[in-house]
Amino acid sequence: MGKGPALIIFLASSLFLVFQNLEVVNAFGCAGSFINGNSSYVQNRNNLFSTLPDKVKANGELYNASLGKIPDRVYALVLCARGYEQNACIDCVELATQSIQTNCLNRTDSFRWGKDGEDNASCLVRSSNHTTFGKLELSPANIYPHPLGIDPFRNMTLFQREWDAMVNRTVEAATEANTSTVLKYYGALRAEFTEFPDVFMLMQCTPDITSQDCKRCLGACVRLYKSQYWGRQGGEVNRPSCLFRWDLYPFQNAFGNVPRSPAPPRPHARDKKGRGIGTIGIIAIVVVVLTFIYLSMLIGYIKVYSRRRKSRNGINVSGAEYSECDGHFMLRFDLRMILMATNNFSSENKLGQGGFGTVHKGTLPNGQDVAVKRLTKGSGQGNTEFKNEVSLLTRLQHKNLVKLLGFCNEGEEEILVYELVPNSSLDHFIFDEEKRSLLTWEVRFRIIEGIARGLVYLHEDSQLKIIHRDLKASNILLDADMNPKVADFGTARLFDTDETRAETRRIAGTRGYLAPEYLNRGEISVKSDVYSFGVMVLEMISGERNNKFEGEGLAVFAWKRWVEGKPETIIDPLLVKDPRNEIIRLIQIGLLCVQENPSKRPTMSSVIVWFRSETIIIPLPNSPAFTGSQSQSSESGTMSMSNIYTELSSR
Which stretches are tagged as biased composition: Low complexity (predicted)? Predict the structure, then answer.
């Protein structure tokens, strides 16, 4: 049997399973980064949790608290549902915190809608390593379906119509304007359905988010339940910011005084003689419709598969197609779609220009905004970067790496399509007198740590080993939440998994960020990126460009201050109120990364461990090398992501 028919059979057998698993469900509400169970962060969380039961109130008020110093500070939110006595609320919070400490020991983020003795969600405990107050959080989701299904001989079409109407009424009740903390974002309804005497439904959001965010959260809960467990006799879906539950019995104290609302009038389906069609007729109609849809999808796939076999360029689907690139499939965009998305590369959509081409903002037919990198026609070196970036980013997926959505190479056009990262590049913040004030120490540390995690993925955790070779502030993009994404892989170098170093005659990158062994002898290793990272850390702490320190560079300047016992003199004056010892610790890590001897530099995984531990003794650094600080590309055509996103922050 060929691959095509086998794939068709696989599609036919698993089609509905795919649709039923569109969202990953977390069993315990654990998320965020992995941490050591004995870390200072976990100790702070345990200490903070021990105080929560005495602080929470059984009247629906939200309690917000934090404990510890960055980066081990813990933030917590606690909320008790309405209708519970103080003692029951305290017991619920204690059980919820114990569950988090047991099941989410090694994760930074967690939430738990705690249960009372009757398995009712009566309180919320939520913790994170960043403040979550006022922020909508949808992931992860927990789902608890009723074990029994509804009698299949009941009129499910009518039931769904009445159920959907009840959902809409409950959402309105939960999100209607009400300034009372007790009643805000809380709705509990009891309804009479045509074939059920009572149906109970509860919706609740944390009172710190907006009404629109509450509706969005509750809608996501309802959709998840219907996509996975529709037909059960009840169920619950909860997320960090909201809770949804329904059942055929009063499952919470809140329903004691809730009046029953009547069911909507029952519409009767009639045949030509005026008789009711009945349950069997409805089932037959549903089966016929589903069969038709299923066969149509199957026939459509067969046609698509046939076209793919006839074409070397892949499957064309609405202006985009999948093409095989170095053994992996990648989205290939039709040039006409690119021209439409960018308004024919109009100057109004231009974001910036680099040595090998221009970048324009575009909007795809589905409404997604993208950054379109158009390489200069006939640029041989640009062609090399194009192939390199497509080949590498096709196989790399990490939250701290910029995402390549696809490419286009029709005729002389070579185009890369990226996710649009709205907050420009790091250099437009850290080196700007006004914008730098937005980079608090907490934000700077999160950016530094995110870059480090991206490098750990490139060096150790991905299926490849990749050396970036041009790591600098202008190649770090910031998303809407100021999370960093490493960008511009045009000069990156792919290593074998067991290869530790290599040599090259082609020195790519920017002086001042290049390791001395690479700049002078062409020696490449993961320690080359570590050196560049160290320079960036010192820039983040000082708020100054490396090339400002003419003749010696920032690394040498910082080393001299370290030897003098005055490392604090390089700290940005804007950080004067922030934890001095913690910042000096980061200076020490930065100096360790820029040491002249590559073997003395730490790995990026060691750097991550040092970031999160106050008990580990960090080695003392040796002197860095004198490399000069001219901030110019060793290859005059190297395309800087700084130029690409120059105008983003002003739009």
Answer: 627-642
